[in-house]
Amino acid sequence: MDDSTRxxxxxxxxxxxxxxxxxLATLTRATLGAPYKPFGKSEIDTAIGxxxxxxxxxxxxxxKPILIKLDYAGWVGKFAGQSxxxxxxxxxxxxxxxxxxxxxxxxxxxxxxxxxxxxxxxxATGNVFxxxxxxxxxxAAAALGKLAIEAGFPPGVFQVLTGDGSTGAIxxxxxxxxxxxxTGSVPTGKNVQVLAAKSNLKRVTLELGGKSPAVVFDxxxxxxAVKWCVNGLTTNSGQICFAASRVYVQDGIYxxxxxxxxxxxxxxxxxxxxxxxxxxxxxxxxxxxxxERILRIVDxxxxxxxxxxxxxxxxxxxxxxxxxxxxxxxxxxxxxIAKDEIFGPVVVINRFKTEEEVIDLSNSSRYGLMAGVFTQxxxxxxxxSEAFDSGVVGVNCVSTISFSCPFGGTKESGIGRELGIHAxxxxxxxxxxxxxxxx
Length: 439
Ligand code: NAD
Description:
The protein has 439 residues and is an alpha/beta fold. It has 15 helices and 20 strands. The site of nicotinamide-adenine-dinucleotide has 30 residues, from helix 7 and helix 8.
């Protein structure tokens, strides 16, 4: 397909998502349970912005709308290769070639945004894209299949394949699939990499879990730190990969921070409720299995005294899988609540004294997706930005994303990056052509 036609198809697809946004949001809400605003709307806007440039999206309810500059339709025809002069007798051309058939396997917690992040750069660079949504939230993805046909993608170029993990495993081990871009949990990500290696050594991008630390120093702006840390844990009921689920607070500000954090946390109950109501900002957790798992983890931690539960951790209301966000203090470093991703509204808060101590605490995790530091001291902020072992660092912010910059994790949080130009590299293979000028 020529560049201009491909660009038109991508832009039309973005228009169709926009026109059908309420319908798509309803399909996601029916399965995920997150209210339309802020989460449902922001993930649809992310999907649109991935295909089309210049889109104002309210990324998070507590930040101003930002201009999204992803624009993978705009990249069509511009992701040029390189050329090198023939100083050694060979003129060199490096081509960025599409991989062929690529698959995107996505989780349930932000289905439409995940599709945009993967499908837009894959299709912009000329690949065939097969989407495997999560079995828990497949409806909006299935509806997108119809819109892909209407947008004018040639038959088969954008496919939606529903199914559970076994369908994902077929894609990960298929000999004709050249790449899998996977977003999900660490154990499944490791499985996908094994299947990829055992089949055709397909390329793999892994966007996995996190246990992101937020570090609050004595000199931090208290109001700002509380706002980001609380929103970073309650958005989508804590079911976001970069949730600020470990908070470290310096001695001098600890008492004030804890009081303000607890109050702000408790206030979230007021905006938690029926996802169909315009008053609600936070819904239930995704399903009964997730609800029972989270409450079991909280109960075990309470019984084994892995930390002091000072607030929440119980089911809320008579109906639906609502969980009152839980705060544990002074947690045992090796406990499940301190170490593992819970993927729900559970936070652990611990004190620290020195910068060195908190760097060690922050990095003592198998995850490395995001870290945040709250301080007014720019030198300290820069020292911590370097010291954190994570793919993304927030200074005076946390649990957020910039759409023009790479997103992904270090350590067991994954391999590779999404967003920005990095996504285009992830769906192409450089090929070097040597032209002999010496005969
Ligand atoms: P999951 O690993 O259970 O499932 C993810 C997807 O993989 C689903 O589509 C599932 O059907 C499929 N799958 C399951 N078994 C498979 C197999 N053997 N081979 C291939 N595919 C298989 O994850 P989940 O519970 O859906 O999502 C929650 C996880 O996703 C959390 O750990 C969260 O942190 C992570 N996540 C990460 C990011 C990120 O960008 N880093 C973003 C969102 C979510």
